[in-house]
Amino acid sequence: MRLEKCYVCSSTIYPGHGSMFVRNDAKIFRFCRSKCRRNFNLKRNPRKLRWTKAFRKAAGKELAIDTSFAFERRRNRAVKYDRDLVAKTLQAIPVIQKVRSEREHDFYRTRMVEREKETRKDALRELATGLDVIKPLIVREKLREREEKESAMEVIEEGLVDKS
Amino acid sequence: MGSGTGRVTKRKGSNKRSRRKRTLSRALDQIHEDISGKGQFSKNGTTDLPVDFDLPGLGQFYCVECARYFITDGVLAAHKKTKKHKFRLKELKDKPYCQAEAEAAAGMAPPDNGSTSAR
């Protein structure tokens, strides 16, 4: 049984599912569902569709380079049945899955920490530069008027002091 | 439909033509091959393209990047100044997407063909 991957979203296609397109140059494209096929027909680049695995890996949103990705692969050679090999493989599967999920989680956590720093920096910058925007215009006008009045009073008072 | 205003917009041409155009137009990865010289068309193939009476301009004025035939040299030159052409050039700068990339994104290693790998 061969499990294929969708050309667009990289999800696993089980036998009897999805659809296949063979282009006139004999290149094969497999799609997991009509959504993916339609997006292919619209000539969209899966690397630019935000919901695909290809986008997430290319944009650095998911762990992309790791040794735990070296196990699942298409093997184009027949392996002779070996009871020990099967047992070892079955033992290894959960271990590899655990390691991978832990590494993916770590990657996510570090990414979120970085993101938190960035958002904080952005917010502080906005606070420093854009405070005028949230202060209403009328309040600013009134404050200026008051300041002008006070300065005028000061001038008069100073004049009075000089005369006396 | 169209009984009130008297204005009926008729479809020009057949749907068959547009469908054929869509299926026959070359995909970006094929155009990449054309440009690199592996595909059906070579990069500066305006001089030695085969004469085809069914194509515009006998198939002599071809834009490789846009996979389009033009009627004359002048029209082809004008096309190369258009936004569409420039946008296509920009699109072609990226490496073409392929099934191998989809599989790598799914967490798969490159295929093991037996002979090359000594594990």
TrEMBL record, chain A:
<dbReference type="InterPro" id="IPR056366">
    <property type="entry name" value="Ribosomal_eL24"/>
</dbReference>
<dbReference type="GO" id="GO:0003735">
    <property type="term" value="F:structural constituent of ribosome"/>
</dbReference>
<dbReference type="InterPro" id="IPR000988">
    <property type="entry name" value="Ribosomal_eL24-rel_N"/>
</dbReference>
<keyword id="KW-0690">Ribosome biogenesis</keyword>
<dbReference type="Pfam" id="PF01246">
    <property type="entry name" value="Ribosomal_L24e"/>
</dbReference>
<dbReference type="InterPro" id="IPR038630">
    <property type="entry name" value="L24e/L24_sf"/>
</dbReference>
<feature type="domain" description="TRASH">
    <location>
        <begin position="6"/>
        <end position="44"/>
    </location>
</feature>
<dbReference type="InterPro" id="IPR011017">
    <property type="entry name" value="TRASH_dom"/>
</dbReference>
<dbReference type="GO" id="GO:0005730">
    <property type="term" value="C:nucleolus"/>
</dbReference>
<dbReference type="GO" id="GO:0042273">
    <property type="term" value="P:ribosomal large subunit biogenesis"/>
</dbReference>
<comment type="similarity">
    <text>Belongs to the eukaryotic ribosomal protein eL24 family.</text>
</comment>
<protein>
    <submittedName>
        <fullName>Putative ribosome biogenesis protein RLP24</fullName>
    </submittedName>
</protein>
UniProtKB/TrEMBL annotation, chain B:
<keyword id="KW-0539">Nucleus</keyword>
<dbReference type="GO" id="GO:0043021">
    <property type="term" value="F:ribonucleoprotein complex binding"/>
</dbReference>
<dbReference type="GO" id="GO:0008270">
    <property type="term" value="F:zinc ion binding"/>
</dbReference>
<dbReference type="GO" id="GO:0003676">
    <property type="term" value="F:nucleic acid binding"/>
</dbReference>
<keyword id="KW-0862">Zinc</keyword>
<dbReference type="InterPro" id="IPR003604">
    <property type="entry name" value="Matrin/U1-like-C_Znf_C2H2"/>
</dbReference>
<dbReference type="InterPro" id="IPR036236">
    <property type="entry name" value="Znf_C2H2_sf"/>
</dbReference>
<feature type="compositionally biased region" description="Basic residues">
    <location>
        <begin position="8"/>
        <end position="24"/>
    </location>
</feature>
<keyword id="KW-0690">Ribosome biogenesis</keyword>
<dbReference type="GO" id="GO:0005737">
    <property type="term" value="C:cytoplasm"/>
</dbReference>
<dbReference type="InterPro" id="IPR051879">
    <property type="entry name" value="C2H2-ZF_Maturation_Protein"/>
</dbReference>
<dbReference type="GO" id="GO:0005634">
    <property type="term" value="C:nucleus"/>
</dbReference>
<dbReference type="InterPro" id="IPR013087">
    <property type="entry name" value="Znf_C2H2_type"/>
</dbReference>
<protein>
    <submittedName>
        <fullName>Zinc finger protein bud20</fullName>
    </submittedName>
</protein>
<dbReference type="InterPro" id="IPR022755">
    <property type="entry name" value="Znf_C2H2_jaz"/>
</dbReference>
<comment type="similarity">
    <text>Belongs to the ZNF593/BUD20 C2H2-type zinc-finger protein family.</text>
</comment>
<dbReference type="GO" id="GO:0042254">
    <property type="term" value="P:ribosome biogenesis"/>
</dbReference>
<keyword id="KW-0479">Metal-binding</keyword>
<dbReference type="Pfam" id="PF12171">
    <property type="entry name" value="zf-C2H2_jaz"/>
</dbReference>
<feature type="region of interest" description="Disordered">
    <location>
        <begin position="1"/>
        <end position="30"/>
    </location>
</feature>
<keyword id="KW-0863">Zinc-finger</keyword>
<feature type="domain" description="C2H2-type">
    <location>
        <begin position="61"/>
        <end position="85"/>
    </location>
</feature>
